Structures are given as C-alpha cells and as structure tokens.
Amino acid sequence: MIQLSEAIRAVGDAYGTKPDCAGVAALLKLTAGHLGYDLTPRPVALRATHIPSEQVFFMGPRATALIPESAKGRVEDLRPASTDTGHMVLTMNAPEKLMIDANLRQLGSYGVEAPSLVVRVQSTTPESGEWKVALEAFDMVLEYFLDDNAALMGWYEEALVKHTGNALLLAEMVGSGMSSAEIGRRLTWRSGA
Description:
Elements: H1 2-15, H2 21-34, E1 39-50, E2 55-59, H3 61-64, E3 87-92, E4 98-101, E5 117-120, E6 130-135, E7 140-146, H4 153-162, H5 164-175, H6 180-186
Antiparallel strand pairs: 1-2, 1-3, 1-7, 3-4, 4-5, 6-7
Helix pairs in contact: 1-2, 1-5, 1-6, 2-4, 2-5
C-alpha cells in the first residue's frame, strides 16, 4: 500500500489545484494497475463545505440539486462553460476498501486548501449511495454521492490513452522506491502533457 500511497501523492502533486478529475483518475488507474492494484473510476457528485468560510462547493447534478431554492440566487457558477459535469473518484476493493479523490486539491483553485484524499470505506457501493467524510485538519465536510452522470467518461477514456506512457514511467519510479517528492522533482511532464 506504500507504493499506492506514493502514486496518489505524486499524481496529486502533478495536477496540483487544476480541476481535471477525469485526467487524474485515468493516470492513477493506469499507474496503480502497473503496481498491482485494481482501481475503478466512479462518477460522483460532491458537496464540500468549508466550515470557517461557510463556502459550499457543488459538483454534479445530485449535489447541485441540494442547493436550497432560497440560496440559488447567491450561488456563483464556476463550472467550465456552466456545464455540470460532476466529479470523478476511484474505488478499490482489495486489499482494502478505499475511496480515492486525488483531485480534491482542485478546491485550492477557489481559495480553499484541500488534500488528495484516500479514505477507508465500509463499501465501495454503499447502500445509501453516499460517503460522508469529515476532514478536521482542513475544517471541511465532504459528501460524495454515487451518480450515473457519465459526462466525464469521454474525457476519462481520452486521458487513458494520453497517459499510457506517463503511467508506466510513474509506476517505474514508485516501484524503484522513489518518494512522491523525488518523483515530482524528476517529472518532465505535468497535467497538461
């Protein structure tokens, strides 16, 4: 699991605060596969609440539907081309059940610091259809909702092709024992590559 953790950090570092959950998911899926882990892309909706600033971020139709009618006039639309593409995470069933959001850092582009997220979950297909995560260190509450919104799947498929070589290189660096910090210093490509 140490290698998977380093890969998650390295991919999160490579993308930084750039909103591209489909690209992140594709790169991490391929890299993890080379390291012996099977990850599954999952379209989700996300409602992230930053407690100190009272900012609430909505990604995906299921989350957007939770905006109270009385508050809709105060909502700032930061979606690319005002399209509600949602969000994408990865899940893993073995050796542990995990939900991974390596692109949660994209909230930083809106002024709220967030980490690349890895959480143990009871189920990767929760009966409730959601995962709720309290990030006390970041004063944030995250609510993920499984969603059948497939708007990001085309970008994900394109990124799988684009990142074939990058994933192999990243897996080789992680497999050789390099830390995510060392990998970051050696990468010749970034999220736009």
